[in-house]
């Protein structure tokens, strides 16, 4: 009876799947209208170009991590800034997690063979801790590297704004000032700005639209504000030289404030080893006296 029920259920599911494949259901009218009315998204300016050669041990777990909702939108933006593929990041995360799980087990087996036995709670706790570290470490590293790259981009953007202001003061138009100034600088930030302006020229679009798209992809509000200011000059004929000068000054002031904050944090961090050394020196001096007092009691 059980075999007949299982076979009947399987045959029924197969016939239903075949019927759905032969006569697919009609999509809902709302979904069709949304698909028709939704504008096509422009191609991303930031494209992944680098791929790390990680061990392919964690490759089968990439689909599982994707189903779990990884990476998060914030990590995806950071990966876009670093131009790293999502699959390479998930492979790295899965590989490090598996290594964190397996290495303590191997070490426990080796120590057990040498010492004659080891409590099972120790390798289990070590495996869980190492796996957690391997799971979180790629996110922390990506976040730190992306923050550093955004800071470098802001620094280059302030220099680019100065060049645009100089071109505008010389009588150049907005489009020519944007394109002429980009050829002066070098580095990753200027390459991304050049790609955005080149995409605008090839697609016969406006440069401020592509700059605004680049600002959203990089998650840099200063670039989005620059695109808004340039769009006013391009569409409304507004004079934006003073506005761009103020934005460049504000960027430099922010960089200076961030540098001072980082220097203060580094100074406080350097004081911790000095305090630990002083505490150790005091313990070294006081130990003989305390030892004699305790022995005398």
Structure write-up:
With 297 residues, the chain is mainly alpha-helical. Among the domains are: 104 residues, no CATH class; 100 residues. 78% of the residues lie in helices and 0% in strands. It starts with a helix and ends with a helix.
Any key phrases for this structure?
single chain; mainly alpha; 11 helices
Fold topology:
Blueprint lengths: L1 H21 L6 H9 L24 H6 L5 H10 L3 H30 L5 H49 L4 H9 L5 H15 L4 H12 L2 H15 L5 H56 L1
Question: What's a concise summary of this model?
Answer:
The protein is mostly helical and 297 residues long. It has helices at 2-22, 29-37, 62-67, 73-82, 86-115, 121-169, 174-182, 188-202, 207-218, 221-235, 241-296.
Judged by helices, strands and strand pairing, the structural class is mainly alpha
Radius of gyration (CA) equals 30 Å
How large is the count of helical segments? 11
Largest sheet: none
Instruction: Compute the average pLDDT.
Output: 81
Distance between the termini: 86 Å
The number of distinct β-strands equals 0
Low-confidence stretches at least 5 residues in length (pLDDT < 50)?
none
- Output the helix-strand order: HHHHHHHHHHH
Q: Helical amount among residues, as a percent range?
A: over 70%
Which range does the strand content fall in? under 5%
Principal-axis shape equals flat
